[in-house]
Amino acid sequence: MTFKLPELPYSHGDLAKGGMSQETMEYHHGLHHNAYVENGNKLIANTEWENKSLEEIIVGTYQSGSVAQNGIFNNASQHWNHCQFWEMMGPGDSAMPSELEAAIKENFGSVDKFKDSFVANGVGQFGSGWVWLVKENDGSLKITKTENGVNPLCFGQTALLGCDVWEHSYYIDFRNKRPGYLSNFLNNLVNWENVASRL
Ligand code: MN3
Question: Which of 32, 13, 34, 11 lies closest to 23 in space, CA to CA?
Answer without folding.
Answer: 13
